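Long-time lurker, first post. I've been practising inverse folding by hand and with some scripts of my own, and I keep getting stuck on stretches where the C-alpha cells seem ambiguous. Below is the full C-alpha cell string for one chain I'm working on. Before anyone asks, I'm not after the true native sequence, just a reasonable design that respects the backbone. If someone could post their per-position residues I'd love to compare against what I wrote down in my notebook.
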C-alpha cells in the first residue's frame, strides 16, 4: 500500500492549525457578545414593551398601545426638555470642538511649559459631573460667586445671575460641561495634529503660505476622522446628561433647564410613571439614532470612497 505523499498531509495539518486559533478567538468573544445582547439590545426591547403598558411603580404587562406616547407628546415638560437638549447639544459640542481645537493648535505651536498647560486643561476631566456641577453652582451663585466677587471690587452694576433666570439657566449647563470636557477634546486634537506630516509645514514655509491658511485649508480637512471621533463622544455625553443637571440647576428654575435624561429618571423613580418614563427613554433613543446615523453614514461612505481612490 502506497504511503501518501508528504505534501498531501500539509494542507490538512495547516488547516487544523488555522482552525484552532480562529475558533478559539470566536469562543473568547461569546461572553462579551452575550452580555451585549442581553444587557443592551435586550433592555432596549424590554423598554419598548414597557412603554406600551400601564406600568407605574412596577412593570404591569397590560398593553394599552401607544397611550404612553400620546401622553408623552402632550406633556409640555417633555418638549421643554427636548428643546433644551437641542440648545445644550449645539453649545456644548460646538464649544468643545472650537475651544479644544484652538487649545490644541496653541500647544502644537510649541509654547513654553507645554506639559504644565496640558495638565491644567486636562485637570477638570478628572472630576465627575457632580463635582463640576457643585463647583459651578458656587461660581454662578449671585450671592456667593462671581457676581458678588466683582461687585466687591467696585463694579456694583455687574450681573451674572444666569443660574436663577429661566431664560438663561440652560446656558450654564453648557459652560460647565465645556469647562470639564474641553481638555479631552484638546488631547484628541493634539494627537491628530502631531500625526500631520512635517513636510507639509516645510513646504508651506517655502511657498510663503500663512500659518492660519495651512491650518484652515490643509490641516483641518486632514483631521476629519478626529473631528468625527470628538463629535460622537460629545454627542453621547449630551444625550445621557443627567448628573450635571441635578448638581448644577436641579432642572430649574421650574423646568427651564430640564433635559430628557432627567425627565425619564424623574418619572421612573420619583413619580412612579414607569410606562411614561420608558416611552421617553425610547423616544430619546430614536432621536439619537436619527441625529447621529446620517453623520456616521456620511463619514463611513467618505472613508470608503477615499480608500477606493
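-- Answer (accepted) --
I ran through it position by position. Result:
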Amino acid at each position: 500500500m502506497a504511503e501518501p505523499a508528504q505534501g498531501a498531509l500539509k494542507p490538512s495539518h495547516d488547516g487544523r492549525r488555522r482552525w484552532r486559533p480562529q475558533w478559539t478567538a470566536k469562543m473568547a468573544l461569546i461572553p462579551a457578545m452575550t452580555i451585549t445582547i442581553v444587557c443592551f439590545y435586550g433592555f432596549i426591547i424590554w423598554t419598548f414593551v414597557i412603554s406600551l403598558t400601564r406600568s407605574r411603580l412596577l412593570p404591569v404587562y397590560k398593553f394599552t398601545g401607544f397611550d404612553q406616547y400620546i401622553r408623552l407628546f402632550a406633556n409640555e415638560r417633555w418638549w421643554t426638555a427636548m428643546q433644551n437638549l437641542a440648545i445644550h447639544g449645539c453649545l456644548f459640542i460646538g464649544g468643545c470642538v472650537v475651544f479644544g481645537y484652538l487649545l490644541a493648535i496653541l500647544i502644537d505651536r510649541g509654547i513654553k511649559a507645554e506639559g504644565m498647560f496640558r495638565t491644567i486643561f486636562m485637570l477638570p476631566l478628572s472630576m465627575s459631573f457632580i463635582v463640576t456641577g457643585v463647583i459651578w453652582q458656587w461660581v454662578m451663585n449671585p450671592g456667593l460667586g462671581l457676581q458678588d466677587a466683582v461687585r466687591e471690587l467696585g463694579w456694583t452694576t455687574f450681573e451674572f445671575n444666569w443660574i436663577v433666570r429661566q431664560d438663561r439657566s440652560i446656558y450654564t449647563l453648557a459652560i460647565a460641561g465645556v469647562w470639564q470636557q474641553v481638555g479631552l477634546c484638546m488631547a484628541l486634537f493634539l494627537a491628530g495634529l502631531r500625526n500631520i506630516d512635517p513636510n507639509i509645514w516645510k513646504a508651506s514655509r517655502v511657498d510663503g503660505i500663512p500659518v492660519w491658511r495651512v491650518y484652515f485649508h490643509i490641516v483641518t480637512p486632514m483631521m476629519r476622522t478626529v473631528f468625527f471621533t470628538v463629535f460622537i463622544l460629545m454627542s453621547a455625553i449630551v444625550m445621557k446628561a443627567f448628573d450635571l443637571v441635578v448638581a448644577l440647576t436641579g432642572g430649574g428654575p421650574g423646568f427651564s433647564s430640564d433635559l430628557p435624561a432627567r425627565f425619564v429618571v424623574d418619572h421612573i423613580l420619583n413619580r412612579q410613571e414607569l410606562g411614561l418614563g420608558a416611552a421617553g427613554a425610547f423616544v430619546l433613543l430614536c432621536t439619537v439614532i436619527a441625529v447621529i446615523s446620517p453623520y456616521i453614514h456620511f463619514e463611513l461612505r467618505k472613508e470608503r470612497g477615499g480608500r477606493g481612490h
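A couple of notes from the structure itself: Residues 77-271+278-308 form a domain with the MetI-like fold fold (CATH 1.10.3720.10). Confidence is low (pLDDT under 50) at residues 6-10. Happy to go over any region you disagree with.
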